[in-house]
């Protein structure tokens, strides 16, 4: 629902501004190799380079010599958890990060708030966002870029509550030191827009109290959270946490796609020896772990990538691995299980005036386990770039209601024409959204093939559990009260809308591939089921106690951990990125302390 492009004029102006402001940088990249003084480095840090620079290049045989000898840590995935983790470990140990995507620093789709929806809509192979559609019929996205989800998300920053930290068994003192480590570098206080103020005041009016002001803390009531966008609308990402790294000991390879983790299975327990990855030219390489005690491969590929990588490497449900002829290293039926996504439903509030763009700034944290937020200003003007958005194309809704053989081109075109008007109207306004904090419904992930570039099949089973559905119904009632409250209407100057009409906008806005029913706006339960979307907080797949130990070591094998959101049984705080980055730092410090004791110096 955020994939509507802005005016081409704005884009051209922006490109023009970029060209005139960076003339030296462009010329110096062109003359790479020559001695030039202030050389522009598109990768920002010297320790980042393309995967093909790895010395042991060979598609037929692996060798490891020269500076590519061995590493104390190999981190698979330079994402929201991987970057802070690698930066921390590199203080005292050699670390190799293998990231399948590129860098975020020079990518305008990532760097600017105003391009949020454009970046998400980009379904090309080089996009920082890799689209997938769960079997539930809901569009979703996973990050494919250094900095991970922090490069493609809405930027909201809010910590986990104390109860989450307690359930995780984490040391609260170290947690309290690790959050500020992230915040100092990349987190900002937002400048509230009019509509975010309207949301704040109407939440208070309908009883989501008290007002807790601007805070990173997770407290019941209404608050303003942090953001990784600065006051110029520029995004700061987990990749910037690499500024903390020891450049002598860190090496980050981009466009490095790990294909499998390699095990030595000759002993009593499988033991990791390294990983096989391919570079941007498709050549294979092997990176090896040092033989020193404590060396580890750490999987930080996220809730889709980590369970997928375990299975591709031979750890997972036996039947599934056999089906794809993957040699079994260790049977574990729990890999890929316990997947969950926080269901989100939205009410669209149309407006006659263009609205200032904002992502998430205000959040209502209710006692019923529901969060209320808003995103505004995605107006589609007549000058907008009208493109087809690949998997996210508005043709797709047709696919959910019309059998394949009846999808005639004329019908598709007619549908697009019809739909455009509705979108045009709806997207001058805002989305007021509610999402469930702790969904009970669970799903699973399974491989479709052995190609790591392909998405596995993911099922979340939104609203399968009746309690989830009941909570959504209550949440929609609450949001209906918010958008018809006095404060909201006074601020936004919108006409008081009939709630059913607003609900019908969400139904018609074509936001997922689920079949629609005639009773969608009469039955809130049906509305919840039919208009569910993701807020991209999916988690699980490598749960603690099932796949990893509390310190995130993979059960049953040596020298392998998983440190990312796949180990979470619930999404922390109102938005997980704060805690995922914190966890990268936290686990890095824990590992250093364990290995070095007092000498770690952290
Ligand atoms: C680990 O790194 C820190 C920072 O560079 C340093 O102060 C500390 O002495 C190192 N510890 C060991 C055991 O090398
Ligand atoms: C940004 O996204 C648009 C499509 O949404 C795409 O056409 C463009 O190439 C992307 N830009 C970059 C730098 O990736
Ligand atoms: C950690 O910080 C939170 C507030 O951010 C505070 O409530 C809590 O008491 C702190 N815990 C420790 C152990 O310092
Ligand atoms: C949306 O805003 C544009 C100006 O950006 C305006 O031209 C258009 O009429 C508005 N649409 C509606 C339905 O109010
Ligand atoms: C209505 O909004 C205006 C600003 O747009 C504000 O000054 C006024 O206090 C508001 N009134 C109420 C009752 O909220
Ligand atoms: C809505 O109508 C459909 C049939 O179109 C029916 O299967 C469903 O149970 C109804 N939903 C509710 C909540 O009444």
From TrEMBL:
SUPFAM superfamilies: FAD-linked reductases, C-terminal domain (SSF54373), FAD/NAD(P)-binding domain (SSF51905)
One matching Pfam family: GMC_oxred_N
Binding residues for FAD: 99-100, 145, 258, 536-537, 565, 576-577
Key words of the record: Disulfide bond, FAD, Flavoprotein, Signal
Cofactor: FAD
Domain Glucose-methanol-choline oxidoreductase N-terminal, residue spans: 302-316
GO molecular function: flavin adenine dinucleotide binding; oxidoreductase activity, acting on CH-OH group of donors
Cleavable signal peptide: 1-27
Domain of life: Eukaryota
Disulphide bond pairs: 472-528
PANTHER family in UniProt: OSJNBA0019K04.7 PROTEIN, PROTEIN HOTHEAD
Similarity comment: family membership: Belongs to the GMC oxidoreductase family.
Protein name (Swiss-Prot/TrEMBL): (rape) hypothetical protein
Natural source organism: Brassica napus
Gene: BnaC06g23880D
């Amino acid at each position: 629902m955020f994939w509507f492009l802005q005016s081409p004029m704005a884009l051209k102006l922006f490109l023009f501004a970029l060209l005139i402001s960076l003339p030296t940088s462009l010329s110096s990249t062109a003359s790479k190799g020559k001695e030039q003084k202030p050389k522009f480095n598109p990768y920002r840090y010297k320790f980042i380079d393309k995967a093909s620079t790895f010395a042991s290049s060979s598609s037929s045989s692996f060798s490891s010599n020269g500076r590519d000898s061995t590493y104390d840590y190999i981190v698979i995935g330079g994402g929201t958890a991987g970057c802070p983790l690698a930066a921390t470990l590199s203080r005292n140990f050699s670390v190799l990060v293998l990231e399948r995507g590129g860098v975020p620093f020079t990518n305008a789709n990532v760097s600017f708030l105003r391009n949020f929806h454009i970046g998400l809509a980009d379904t090309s192979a080089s996009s920082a966002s890799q689209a997938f559609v769960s079997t539930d019929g809901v569009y979703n996205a996973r990050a494919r870029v250094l900095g991970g989800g922090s490069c493609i998300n809405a930027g909201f920053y809010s910590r986990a509550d104390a109860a989450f930290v307690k359930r995780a068994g984490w040391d609260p003192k170290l947690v309290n030191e690790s959050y500020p480590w992230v915040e100092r570098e990349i987190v900002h206080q937002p400048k509230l827009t009019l509509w975010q103020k309207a949301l704040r005041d109407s939440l208070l009016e309908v009883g989501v109290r008290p007002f807790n002001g601007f805070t990173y803390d997770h407290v019941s009531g209404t608050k303003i959270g942090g953001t990784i966008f600065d006051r110029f609308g520029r995004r700061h990402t987990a990749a910037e946490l690499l500024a903390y790294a020891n450049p002598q000991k860190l090496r980050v390879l981009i466009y490095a796609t790990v294909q499998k983790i390699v095990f030595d299975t000759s002993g009593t327990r499988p033991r990791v020896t390294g990983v096989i990855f391919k570079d941007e030219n498709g050549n294979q390489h092997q990176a090896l772990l040092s033989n020193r005690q404590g060396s580890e491969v750490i999987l930080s590929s996220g809730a889709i990538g980590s369970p997928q990588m375990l299975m591709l490497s031979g750890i997972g449900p036996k039947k599934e691995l056999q089906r794809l002829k993957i040699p079994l290293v260790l049977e574990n039926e729990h890999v890929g299980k316990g997947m969950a996504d926080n269901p989100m439903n939205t009410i669209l509030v149309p407006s006659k005036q263009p609205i200032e763009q904002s992502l998430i700034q205000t959040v209502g944290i209710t006692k019923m386990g529901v969060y209320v937020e808003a995103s505004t200003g995605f107006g589609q003007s007549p000058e907008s770039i009208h493109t087809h958005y690949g998997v996210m194309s508005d043709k797709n809704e047709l696919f959910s209601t019309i059998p394949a053989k009846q999808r005639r081109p004329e019908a598709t075109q007619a549908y697009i024409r019809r739909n455009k008007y509705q979108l045009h109207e709806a997207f001058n306004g805002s989305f007021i959204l509610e999402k469930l904090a702790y969904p009970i419904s669970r799903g699973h992930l399974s491989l479709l093939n052995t190609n790591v570039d392909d998405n596995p099949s993911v099922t979340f089973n939104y609203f399968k559990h009746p309690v989830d559905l009941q909570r959504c119904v209550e949440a929609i009632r609450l949001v209906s009260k918010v958008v018809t409250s006095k404060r909201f209407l006074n601020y936004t100057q919108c006409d008081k809308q009939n709630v059913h009409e607003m609900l019908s906008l969400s139904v018609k806005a074509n936001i997922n591939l689920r079949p629609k029913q005639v009773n969608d706006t009469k039955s809130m339960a049906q509305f919840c089921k039919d208009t569910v979307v993701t807020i991209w907080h999916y988690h699980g797949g490598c749960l603690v106690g099932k796949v990893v130990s509390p310190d995130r070591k993979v059960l049953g094998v040596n020298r392998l951990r998983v440190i990312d959101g796949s180990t979470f049984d619930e999404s922390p705080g109102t938005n997980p990125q704060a805690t995922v980055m914190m966890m990268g730092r936290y686990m890095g410090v824990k590992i250093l302390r364990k290995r070095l004791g007092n000498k770690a110096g952290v």
